[in-house]
Structures are given as C-alpha cells and as structure tokens.
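Researcher: We're reviewing a set of sequences before deciding which ones to prioritize for further study. For each one, I'd like a predicted 3D structure that I can look through quickly. This is Probable mitochondrial saccharopine dehydrogenase-like oxidoreductase At5g39410. If possible, include the structure in token form so it fits the rest of the review sheet.
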Amino acid sequence: MESSLYDFIILGASGFTGKHVVRQALQFLNPSPSSPLKSFALAGRNPTKLSETLKWAANLHSPPPIPLLIADITDPQSIHRLCTQTKLILNCVGPFRRYGEPVVAACVETGCDYLDICGEPEFMEKMEANYHERSVENGSLVISACGFDSVPAEFGFMFNSKQWVGESAPNRIEAYLSLESKNKIVGNFGTFESAVLGVANADQLVQLRRSRARRPRPKIPGPCPPKGQFVEHNEETGLWAVRLPSADSPVVRRTLSSLAETPHGLPGVNERVEEIEQRTTFWSSVKPARFGVKIGSKSLIDILQIIAVGMIMGKLAKSSFGRWLLLTFPSVFSLGYFEKKGPSKDEVDSASFKMWFVGYGYRNKNGEGSREVDMKIVTRVMGPEVGYVATPIILVQCALIVLSKREVLPKGGVLTPGIVFGPTDLQKRLEENEIYFDVISKNVKL
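Model: Here's the predicted structure for Probable mitochondrial saccharopine dehydrogenase-like oxidoreductase At5g39410, in token form for your review sheet.
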C-alpha cells in the first residue's frame, strides 16, 4: 500500500460520530516528513454533506483541501475503489451488522488495513470467523472496537492486571462504568439501534459461538466467583450497579484467548530486537483474570430506570413491530436516554466518564492456603464524553499508531485492539489526549 494516495479514508464522515472523527483527525494533519498523517480523505454517499462536515470540523475557518470521495456501502465496487486508494479505512458507518461486512471484505481482498468503532459482538466475531485466515494471507489488519467500545475496558483491564506484581495474581477484575454530566445527556441513536438489533439477534450470536472451535482459555488462579446480587452497591466506587451487556467483556476474552495461544503476543511484520523485547516484557506483565462490566450510578433510581429500559428492549426487540416501535420512538422507549437528534454541544461538553476496575486476587499467584481472595487493587480510567469525544480520540490515536508503527504490528488478521496495541504507546497517547489511567488503591489485603 506504499503507493496509496491517502494515509487513511474516513468512511461515513458525515454521520453523527464520523464528523467528530474528522475534527479530531484535522488536529494531527501535518505534511512534514516526520508526521505519520500527511493526507486523508472523507468518503460517503452525499458530497454536499461531506462538504458541510469538513466546514464544521474546521470550525468555520477556511477548510483544508481534504478530498471528498463518493462511496456507497451498497455498491461493492465503490468500496473496493476506496481501499485501493489508501493504507487504512476508518469505518464509522453503523450498525455494523447491516453495513460493516462489505467494507471488511473489500479491505481484506485488497490488503488494506481497517479500523472501526463497532461495539457489536456478533459482527466482530462473525468477521473473525469469516475473514481471519484470508486477512493474514493478504496482510490486512482488521481491528474493530477502536472507540469507547472497547479500548478503555481493554486497556483498563490490562492496567489493573499489571499492578499485580511478583507472586500476586488477580482472580477477577470487575469494571464499574459511570457516565457523568452536569446536564442530562442523550445517547447516540446509532448506539441504540445497534443495541436493539443485538438483542433481536442474540440467538444468532449464541449459534455462531457454538459453531466455532473453542479457543484456548488462560489459566486463572482460584475458583469462579459466585454471581452475586443482581443489583449491587459497590463500596469502592460508591455506585449502585447492574451488569452491562456490552461488547467489552467478549473483546477482553478474545484478547486473553489470543494471549493463551501466543503468550508473548503476536510478532510484528519487521520487529527489531528491542521491539521484540518490549512486546514480550509487556505481555509477561499482564496476568489473566475473569472480567465483567457493570453500569453504575450514585442513584438507585437511575439503575432501576436502566433495568426498565433493558426489560422494555428485551420484550419488544424480538418482534419486527416491537423493533419498529423502539427505533421510531427511541426517546419514549428508552425513557429519554436516547434520541434521534443526539445531544447538544453543551451536553457533550459537560459529559465525562469514569470506569473503575476492582481487582480481587491472591498475594500468592496459586492462591495457596486459601480459596478466598486476600488482596484487592482498584484502578480507574477517566475521560471526556464517550460517544463524540472519547471515541474519536481513541480511533484517531489507533490510526496514527498503524500509520507510524506498522512494522511492529502483526502482518494481518481480524484481531482485538488489546492484542494489537497493548505493547505500543497507545495508553501514553490517550493520556496525552484527556483519557487518564490511575491507581486508586493498591496491595490492599482483605
């Protein structure tokens, strides 16, 4: 792909999230030889909307001469043509179960690299099942979940895991997500649509997993913990919480399975000795653990409302008429959490997230002498609003690493962000862009 016209192309640039990705990318556009991002283009169906997006992203100043390319997911030739013009596609067109596969197929066929902001487990695992071997052969990296789903969860998990030094080891790490705002913020309709379709097709995901050979699982000290209460009040965070059926846990499990298969991580295309040492040192410090995610709030009423939305969605999403109701009147059936118009600028600016990771484990890695955990470590990841700020930051930083460090990344494959970017400087890059990692309490003996 050295002769490509563009370093990357943002597909779906005029969408709700896509236009924020454009704004973020413009901050790193630099024609100097030392810059990894010298050129990029925008792609979508409507040239007028692409032009308006570029003006908006440039903050009403004279926009730079960014090429605007016409492409339609329903036209495979137009997507194939995009892939032949660039090193990397940043796909912002969702729901991915509906629109994602043609883009992945074109990237794999042409050897183009691919990143997206998908949070849909069925799509990601289906792409892995259908395209992994071919993508390795053609040298195409296909990496989904390069946004808020699921980089904070993966890197937060690994950050907590690395705190268990010496003979200590985690048995489980539980994440608690808190979405905070001075003003009530409404969610992206695309996220709601993906969730509705995910519930509607839950059986297909089960069938897909049953049809595939079971991958190796990492060895984790100690027994499986009990399920615990349906609604929990967590002392470390002060949050009421309930399990969140997001993509985060499946993505982390896929990373840990990859690590079980290759304990020192996946070799890069052309690593130097020091880069091999960096990769092996990084992965030797990451200890596997069971992982789960819960959504939390200081208010029990908020959690009860979230449970109510989940019950409504679970009931209605199973029928075509129920899905029509959900997607036609999202504000009504989500109790105001999602709207088609999305949040205002003030709502986005006032919003943030905190994600606590509470690790329970053993001072001795084998848990010898006791089947009860006797150690706890609490860490946290925090940053700006998740959909329109954090996700573009994460996606663009992942893209810059692909552009600047392609030789130290795997040749190809349908992979998770964690297994690809773990040994790189992605965490440092995120901390330089308002997504922070810190240790709350360490080596607490129970």
